[in-house]
């Protein structure tokens, strides 16, 4: 056939670096990581396949392992009541709500879940998003703009950083858990901006430490900013009743402007929430892009989270067991002179080993003892603080902890002596 004539000039030859995915810097980085692992004889520590439910134990490669890599802290993701709630919701509402919530995706289970979250927090209202990550991205991206400032802890989760970037606001980080460093930034910059939001986490998931909420509240009140707390790992984990950082620190819910959390940890579902005053929540329901332009949460995801919240309240011994076993792990790790950083011994305890190669090697060695623990490698943390990160579970036993720490001690000394 004839070549169609065109008035557009022919493009010059574009360098392959800009047209091929395998020339993208990200792919080059992946190749380097894999080659490094192969050279050292360490298998890829990511994407291990779990063949059933993952709680205090899990099945990997057909073998039952003690499991420290899942944030199913209260073991509710396989609780019969939680599973039953999911089955009933699936049968009643089908597998998808087939529209965004404002359009025709609203179901009674969404409203029941949001009401339960708001009541648990003792705030006016709450809204759930289909992803925890998208909750932070959309909320910060929507609420803040170029005349505003976002101040966050240097260890804040990626979702807050991405939300801040989307918002177009100025973003500054302050030293980890350091209210004085925050104060310095506010003294210098508060007056240059309109809205200012401080973002911290309830329980930092790499370190298992927590902020002094009272001090952050005092600072935010004095500088007239908003305070947002990401409770992904602290809600339904910290406090005797599982009410999160506010219970742990004895601070009224109203002292924090934006409570954020996820449904993917103790809540045994998937998604995130924002809880706070009516004006905030209504605005997000009508305008936050990740809510408005995204499908409503599937009923079989919302219902298990609602059931998990109820079971947490009905069976308070789960929280007590989680707190006991976490404390035990921390004590026993310290007795063996392991470096546990600043962990307060609630649900998350790292053992810092100081090199990515050692962390990956120890994780691989422990798996051969049927113990599953994730190595946290550079660049997720600085190289000198590469670690094994232990998530505790209320169903862990002291015997499992002893066996794990014994195996770790033996494998570690075999590699250093
Ligand atoms: N915030 C924090 C502090 C997190 O740790 C995570 C993920 N674990 C998220 C937000 C994102 O939540 P999700 O995985 O439920 O999307």
Automatic annotation (TrEMBL):
Keyword vocabulary terms for this entry: Transferase
Cofactor: pyridoxal 5'-phosphate
Keyword Lyase: no
Domain annotation Aminotransferase class I/classII large: ranges: 64-408
Name of a matching Pfam family: Aminotran_1_2
Protein name: Polyketide synthase
Natural source organism: Salinicola rhizosphaerae
Lineage of producing organism: Bacteria, Pseudomonadati, Pseudomonadota, Gammaproteobacteria, Oceanospirillales
Record gene name: wcbT
């Amino acid at each position: 056939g004839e070549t169609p004539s065109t008035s557009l000039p022919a493009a010059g030859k574009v360098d392959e670096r800009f047209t091929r995915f395998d020339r993208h810097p990200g792919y080059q980085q992946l190749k380097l990581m894999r080659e490094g692992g192969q050279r050292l004889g360490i298998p890829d520590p990511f994407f291990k396949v779990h063949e059933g439910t993952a709680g205090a134990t899990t099945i990997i490669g057909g073998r039952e392992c003690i499991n420290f890599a899942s944030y199913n802290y209260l073991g509710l993701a396989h609780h019969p009541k939680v599973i039953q709630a999911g089955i009933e919701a699936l049968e009643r509402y089908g597998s998808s709500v087939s529209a965004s919530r404002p359009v025709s995706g609203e179901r009674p289970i969404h409203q029941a879940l949001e009401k339960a979250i708001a009541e648990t927090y003792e705030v006016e209202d709450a809204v759930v998003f289909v992803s925890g990550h998208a909750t932070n991205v959309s909320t910060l991206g929507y609420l803040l703009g170029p005349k505003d400032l976002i101040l966050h802890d240097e260890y804040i989760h990626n979702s807050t950083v991405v939300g801040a970037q989307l918002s177009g606001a100025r973003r500054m980080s302050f030293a980890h858990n350091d209210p004085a460093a925050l104060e310095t930034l506010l003294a210098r910059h508060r007056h240059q901006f309109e809205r200012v939001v401080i973002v911290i986490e309830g329980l930092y998931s790499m370190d298992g430490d927590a902020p002094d909420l009272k001090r952050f509240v005092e600072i935010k009140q004095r500088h007239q900013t908003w305070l947002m707390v990401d409770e992904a790992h602290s809600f339904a984990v910290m406090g005797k009743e599982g009410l999160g950082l506010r219970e742990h620190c004895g601070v009224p819910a109203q002292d924090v402007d934006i409570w954020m959390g996820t449904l993917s940890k103790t809540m045994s579902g998937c998604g995130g929430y924002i809880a706070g005053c009516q004006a905030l929540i209504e605005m997000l329901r009508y305008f936050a892009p990740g809510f408005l332009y995204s499908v409503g949460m599937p009923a079989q995801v919302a219902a298990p989270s609602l059931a998990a919240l109820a079971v947490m309240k009905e069976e308070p011994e789960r929280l007590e067991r989680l707190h006991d076993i976490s404390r035990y792990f921390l004590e026993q790790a310290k007795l063996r002179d392991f470096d546990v950083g600043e962990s307060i011994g609630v649900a998350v305890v790292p053992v810092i080993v100081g090199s990515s190669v050692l962390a990956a090697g120890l994780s691989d060695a422990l798996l051969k003892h049927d113990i599953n623990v994730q190595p946290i490698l550079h660049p997720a943390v600085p190289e000198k603080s590469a670690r094994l990160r232990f998530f505790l579970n209320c169903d862990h036993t002291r015997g499992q902890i002893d066996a794990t720490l014994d195996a770790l001690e033996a494998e570690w000394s075999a590699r250093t002596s």
